[in-house]
Each structure stands twice: as structure tokens, then as C-alpha cells.
Amino acid sequence: MSIYFDHAATTPMSQAALEAMVTQVGRLGNASSLHSPGRSVRKDVEEARELLSRLVGAAPSEIIFTGSGTEANNLVIKGTFWTRKQEDPKRNVVLISAFEHHAILDPVEWLQEHQGAEIIYIPITAAGYVDLEVMREIVAKRGDEIALIAVMHSNNEVGTIQPIAEIVEIAGDIPVHSDAVQSFTKVDFSFAQLGLTSATISAHKIGGPLGVAALILRRGIDITPILHGGGQERDIRSGTLNAPGIVAFAAAAQDALSHRTETELRIRNLKTLLVDLVKKEIPDVTVNGSSNPALPGIVNLTFPGTESDGLLLLLDAEGIFCSTGSACSAGVPRPSHVLLAMGLSERTARSSLRFSLGASSTEAEVQFLASAIPAVVTRARAALVRG
Amino acid sequence: MDNGRTMKLIAAMSGGVDSAVAAARAVELGHEVVGVHLALSSNPQKYRSGARGCCTIEDSHDARRAADVIGIPFYIWDMAEEFHEGVVENFISEYASGRTPNPCLRCNEKIKFAAVLDRARALGFDGVATGHYAQMVETPLGRMMYRAADPKKDQSYVLAVLNTEQLAGAYFPLGDTVKEDTRKEAKARGLYVANKPDSHDICFVPSGDNAGWLRDRLGSEVGPIVDETGTQLGEHKGAYTYTIGQRRGLGLSVPGEHGQPRYVLKIEPKTNTVVVGDHEALAVNHIVGDSPIWCGPVPIAETVYEGFAQVRAHGEPLACTYSHQGSEITVDLVKPLFGLAAGQGLVIYDGDRVVGSATVSETA
Questions:
Q1: Hey, which of A271, B61, B265, B329 has its CA 20 to 30 A from A16?
Q2: Active-site positions of A?
């Protein structure tokens, strides 16, 4: 048995994306070349851009392709900060939620360390949402000092969907960025409707290939680039366009969205079943983060009296693949900063696992997990080295 | 291993060549093996510098890569807290009380074959395989540990702190191999670490400057260097940075009575005094060790046996008689050894078999 419950890490590539990619890889041409092969590839890229822009609720010119979600987040965080601060030196504050992904947290911390930026973290409620009241107070008090605000659309570890529309409203004229890599194609997401200044989406989270993502940046907004070169992508992200990746990205999005409602409902039911069955076997298990509103496929569970890396090893041996919070650069497991931000103790955070279901998940897989979990938890409890 | 029974083993993989080949051999013997790299520092350095240091990010990458090549699952276990408490703090406090500890002994005793073995057993594994060079022999009286086939690499000394229960879960697939062959085998197996230098020195002192490292943690209070009569001959910067038998680095301008070199004889942490004297005064004929650990059958108490004593990792085996009573082992050497500090590991051998170990508490 081989059960992949780590769709939030990366997803299997959809047939549509795979075919699009393979076809495009065989085509000669640099999309920036003026001759016929170049123009032909450019046409493929622009068609993909138009398709993707429709699917994400943006204008084609608002899509800036990048090499990864991390790159898109770095670009928008640093680029917006630099531009906004240049316009008005007072704007030295970056306001972010306390449980952002490291691809947001780390560039913001880099700005603090190297450029003197001030970070204000919006606290997270126990249910897993940004505290809007606190945010409102911060914006009221410090609004004219804030260079940008970043709050993820949904959290990658607990799945809670953040109140982005309200955040945008509170922000007023301050740019708001939202990392939407976990949300896009999983739940309803429209860049224009939310009124965001920018958002990040990534291909490999939605059945597309690795190595391609996009920053969606509102028309008319200019940010300072990080990569300088050929001036591609509105002069904001230089570098030869990854045509096969881009074409496959759009194909993956189209495929996923063509059956989104049914898939979302099916995965959501599987998640409910998973929680019910695991609870039946391990009565003291707790679910981290509210399920409403939340992504259909992510469930984060605490197994009291265990260490998550022990659980992971034992589940891996059973052929069940899930994940713990995160690891440092040397691969050492760390308690999840997401769970800590939600008020869990370090001990509790270290006993938690994320299962993320996707389009390929089945009821049989969930049943198998439920049958394997009692022995795994018993073992992991015996192996707890730190009380 | 274990009479051909298939076992579930954790292979402790440092990122070096020995542990990689040990893991590969365990797999080849049919065991179900999971590779584990121990993260022993909470603030690891990025790269190794030559033979020094370990547990760098590069080491964990090398260990992961070796596990991939061998085809086994791989995890990193965070043992930084246990290592700091059981090994690093012990190292500092032993030096602070004028003793000379061996942190590799403590690491085997408290981490690799304690915290790791306990966790492995609880997770359903039979034991821990490492790249140590020592041989395990099954006898009607239980498992016994012998010196490695390669005398230059023999690590039975640093493993002599394992009791029989720990030894029951310890597997050393390289015990019958000479180091050169391990490297050749690594190369043949396509393990990238085949030519990685051996690690030496103390892993948590990456600079190799033990005295400086200790000074940073214990301060560098100036104190007297005196002779055996108590006459002050000079000054030192922190008594604990000296080792019994040390000759260099004393900075004494007054020569010995007959112009002979002087050696550190004693360190008195309470008065921060270093006592020096001539070579003869370092002679030790009688050793008392406390907290004995037996690596096999316990010798009959208050009975005098003939055997060998070893007091350093790569020291000579010294012919002796030994006996034990209460919580002490007493050793009488046939010929004196020169320079032995309290805190050093005393390991007793019966030929090549490891009888047990103790920590040196008194010498005469």
C-alpha cells in the first residue's frame, strides 16, 4: 500500500499538464525572439497566460511568471517594500500574519535584518485565523508607516482560509499581498474579487510541474525587480520564459478547475471521514484549526504523548506519507511555528502531523490509515524521549 | 549477525564512510534498516573543516545521500538537547573539577546506545548499527565484545561503557574489516563519502582548540604553577586547560633542579593550582576506577585476575592484575605508566575481550 497524504507539499501531475508539457518541451524557440519559432513559442506562452488569468480572475498583464512560489513571494515582498519606502521613507513597517509560510516570513525577516524594516505580526486566534481586531488597531495607529501587508489566503499547515476581503478593506490604500498557493483551484479564488494588490500561485500545488509559479500583480503597480536582465514579464522578472512549464501550469489549472466543485466536496467528505475514523481509534486526538472556512484537504492532528518524527517514521514504514511542520536547513524537525502562533505549546506542536488529501485520494486510503494508526500511535508513545 | 535472524535496525549515519558502509552491510545481510542521522548541535555549522567537527549541514546531506544510494529510508533525529546535557555539560564540569573526561565514551554511553537505542527499541527496532570498529561474539554466556580486526582503528575502548543490555542492541558490521577495505568497499558501492577524511578530535570543538574552547566557557582566571613543595614557579590561565603529563605550554622560565623538563602532575581546581614535577613523579602503578560497567559476565568480586588495562582511546594495553569490590575496580600494573588523570576511562581487557570499564578516580 502506498498512500500519498502530502498533497500540500506537492501534487501528482495531471494527465493534461503532463501532455501539454511534453508537447511544449519539443518546440524550438525563445519566446523573446523575434523570428518565427520565437513568435510561435510566444504565442503558446501568451495563450497560457490568458487562460490562467481568466481562471485566477486577473488580467493577462497581471500574471508575472516566476520559477517558484518562493521566488514570487520574495519578489513581491522585497520589491514592494523597496518601492513604497522610496516613495515615502516613513513606510518602514511590514505587517504580516504570524503564521505565514517561510517564503514570506524569511524575506520579511531579511528586510528587518539587512534593511532596518520593522515587522509587526498580526496574532492568530486559536481557531487559526488572523485577529482582525488587532489588525484594525495596528492599521489605525501605524497605517501611514506600513509599506505592505501580507496574509496568506489559506494556511498550508492547518488549512484555515483567512478573511482576505476584510483584510483588504481594513488595509485601505496599503498594498495587500496574499500567498494563495494552497487555495488556487482548491477553493473559490478570484484575484479581482478579493481586491488584492498581489497574490502568489504555484503550478506544482495544482497538478502542474515543478519550477513554475506566478506572481499576480495588479496592473499599474510597479515594484523593484530582484532579477535584472532581458526585461521579460513587465520588466519585473527577467529571465527566459519557461514555456513548457507555463503551458503545463495553465493546463493543470484548467483541468483542476473543470471539476473543482465535485472534487472539493469529495475531498472535504474524505477529510471528515479521516477525522471521524482517527478519533474513533485515538479518542484523545485533537484537530488543529477550525474546519470552516478551511481548505477541503488539509487536516492537522495532535496525537498527545508522541513525537511527530516518530509517527512519521512509523507511518512511512506502513506506506502512508504525511508531514510534520517543517525542518531547519540541516533537516532537524522543529515545532511548527504555525501551531505555536495558534497558541499550542511546543510539546503539543511537536506531537502534530499534517495529512493533506488531494484529487487522487480515496476512501480506501483513509480506511487504511485508520486501521494502521492505533499501532503506530502506541509505538510512538512508547518512544517518546522527552516528557 | 545474530545467527542469521533478520532484524530491524536503525543505522546511525554520521555522514562518514564507516557508518555508510556499516549500513550497507546490514542491508546486505538481509536486515530491515532505517538510516538515522543524529543532529547533535542545535546550531550546526555549514561545512566540515578537514577532519574536524561533525554534524554539519554537509554531514547530514552526506548521510542522506548515502542512505539514498543504499536504498533505505532516512531521518534526522534531534538529539541536541540530550547531547548537550549528557556530553557537553559533563565535559565542561569534569574539566572544571580538575578531571580529564573522554566525551566519546559519554556519547556512546548516553546518546548512541542509550537515547537512540531506547528510541529505536520503542519504535520496534531490534538495535542500532554503527560504523564502530569492534567485534561482537555470541557465546553461551551471552554477547561479548572484542577488539576490532584492524588494531589501528579498534574502537572497543570507547565502547567499553556499554553494559550487556546496551550491547545486546549494538551491531558493528565493520568489526572484522580494516579501514582501507572499508574505503575500497565504499567506492565499489558507489558511496560518495568513500574518500571523506576520518574525524578526529572532539566533534563539538570544531576549531580543535580545546583549551580556548574551555577558557570561553570557564573563564581564564590566572593561578599559580607550583612544584611539589608548593613553591610558585609561574602562572597559568585557567588550571583546567592543562592535562596530567603535559609538558609543553607551561611557560616556565625557572628550569628544573637538574635542568630536566617538567610535567603537569596534578590540577587542583579549588585553589586553581597546577602542580608540576619531573617525569618520575608521573609514574602510576596502582589505579582505582569507580562506577564499573561490565561488557559481559561479571568477574567474581574480590578475586584477582590477570589482564590488560587501557587508559586512552589509542593507548597501549598494559599488563596488569585487577579485581573489583563494591563499586570500585582496582588495577595493579606490571610496569608503571606515566601520566594518568582522574576522569579518564579505564578499560580492562582479557586478551582481546573487553571485560569492562570504569572511570579513573585515584592513582598511586
A1: A271
A2: 328
CA distance A50 to chain B (A): 42
Q: In terms of CATH, what superfamily is B220-277? A: Adenine nucleotide alpha hydrolases-like domains (2.30.30.280)
Last residue of a domain, one of A257, A275, A297: A257
Q: Do B122 and A327 touch (CB under 8 A)?
A: no
Subunit contact B122:A383, Cβ cutoff 8 A: yes
CB contact under 8 A, B57 and A330: yes
> In the numeric block, which cell numbers belong to residue A320?
502512508
How far is residue A302 CA from its own chain's centroid?
A: 22
Nearest C-alpha neighbor of B148 from the set B165, B130, B123: B130
Instruction: Identify whether residues A64 and A212 lie together within a single domain.
Output: yes
Grid coordinates in use for A36? Answer: 518565427
Compute the Cα dihedral for A82, A112, A289, A363 and give only its sign: positive
How do beta strands A286-287 and A298-302 pair? antiparallel
Question: Residue B53: is its pLDDT beyond 80?
Answer: no
- Secondary-structure percent of chain B, ordered helix, strand, coil, rounded to 5: 30, 30, 40
Nearest to B60 among A310, A330, A384 (CB): A330
CATH code for the part of the protein at B282-363: 2.40.30.10
A324 and A267 part of one domain: yes
A223 domain-assigned: yes
Domain boundaries, position A19: 15-257
- Does position B51 have pLDDT exceeding 50, yes or no? no
Residue type, B132: H
**Separation CA A265–CA A205 (nearest Å):** 18
CA distance linking residue A196 with residue A232, whole number of Å: 23
Q: How far is B76 from chain A (nearest CA, A)?
A: 6
Give the residue carrying C-alpha cell 514579464: A233
**Cell numbers standing for residue A379:** 509505538
Of A221, A199, A210, which Cα lies nearest the Cα of A150?
Answer: A199
CATH number of the CATH domain containing A235: 3.40.640.10
Beta strands in A124-219 (DSSP E): 146-150, 176-179, 198-202, 213-217
Q: How far is B298 from chain A (nearest CA, A)?
A: 30
Q: Give the three cell numbers for residue B112.
A: 548512541
Q: Is residue A9 part of a domain?
A: no
Q: Is residue A3 part of a domain?
A: no
Which amino acid is present at B120? A
d(CA A128, CA A342): 6
Other CB atoms within 10 A of residue A89 CB: 8
ipTM at complex level = 0.85
At the topology level of CATH, where does B2-195 sit?
Answer: Rossmann fold (3.40.50)
Q: Where in chain B are all domains bearing CATH 3.40.50.620?
A: 2-195
Q: Which stretches of A127-197 are assigned E, i.e. beta strand?
A: 146-150, 176-179
Q: What is the mean pLDDT of each run of 10 residues along chain A (387 residues)?
A: 94 98 97 96 98 98 98 98 98 98 97 98 98 98 98 97 98 98 98 98 98 97 96 96 98 97 97 98 98 97 95 95 76 88 96 96 98 96 71
